[in-house]
Amino acid sequence: MAGTLALVLSVVASVLGGVLREAALLPWALLAFAGAADLLLSPSRRKEVAFELVPEIFVGETADLKLAVANAPDALRGRLEWPVGVSGPGEFAFEVSDDRTARARVPCRAVRRGNWSFEYLWLSWQSRLKLFEFVPRIAVGASVRVVPNIRLVQSGQITTTVASTLFGVKENRIIGEGSEFHQLRDFVQGMDVKTIDWKRSARRRSLVAKELRAERNHQVIVALDTGYLMREEVMGIAKIDHAVTAALATAWAAIIGGDLVACYAYDIQPRVFVAPQAGRAAFARLRSLMADFTYVGRETNHMLALSELNARTPKRSLIVIFTDFVDTTSAELLIENIGILARRHVLIFVTLRDPETEGLVETAPETLNGVATLVAASQSIAERRLVHERLARLGVTVVDARPDQVTARLISAYLDIKAREVI
Prior knowledge:
The chain is an alpha+beta fold. The protein contains 14 helices and 21 strands. Strands 2, 4, 6, 9, 10 and 11 form a six-stranded mixed beta sheet that branches. The protein has a six-stranded mixed beta sheet with strand order 18-17-14-19-20-21, sandwiched between helices. It starts with a helix and ends with a helix. Residues 169-179 have low confidence and may be disordered.
């Protein structure tokens, strides 16, 4: 603004001529003097910034990055260079306290697993006389690790649900209806005659009944498709990250339920297979393993991957498959190989619904483009439903839910299968 005013005065003096022409350079001299004074009066551009951030963030959650700048000017603003795996506001303001320390709390949302570094921070403020704007770039040096979300595991909610279902209120129903021997007890009136152990009764010369309970130590295998379709974002997070969250929750539920847990990951070919293990150490290993799953751009070869899984698991197991498909044509090989697996194993097929697609169907279109979008979304939903129905006819348990609901439905399906002893 000051430069424009000086230019106008110089042009006017030059046009009028005479004595004023000799004064044409005066506005520029005044502007230069004001600029030099402004630089001398303004705070130094060298700033030291203190950063504070938690070392780990669960994917899909938000943590605050705390910034502090000493000897800060008024109206200080900042802008971060965000890494790929963390998102946040494009620009943010600092609050300057009485001791001239500026502080800001910047929300950081974790959107992709991995180790991410904050490279640079740009600060912005105006000089004392508003003639300049200072924009220094400062190296941050802060980093954060985005890890799979195990919030439900840490909260104890899954532990409470599984323990109360399998070993609490329903313990009386499970004992006596299972297939695993529990103990012997004296036969009393009202008990099922089929539970009498006639050989032991003959030895003791009194009726003895066998008490059974639900069998444990089953094999539970979480199989994750890590192909390019699982990179699609749903509710701001890649499908593979939603799948990893649900897989870890199910693995924890299986461990609490006394089962052995294995992990299998595949895309164009099998990538990872971890043999079934029990205990909390197995969960820690699975969590570390899944944290390193990469986001690949390769198409999934279901025929090769599921055939390999079938060959690796001769014992009847519960297999939880997390995958995705585009239409019925692309799902043909998937359905065929799942049908082969279902002959020997118990299967849970998990897919994620897209709330945006469902919202398109529920919203009345106002333009021809909207009609075309509605038809495409309806067709996509219908084809997915058709695939799920075909899988259900093969005896596969289908869990098709929104990302925020899939974990609860999956654990419920696991507990139902466990209680019915179909493994």
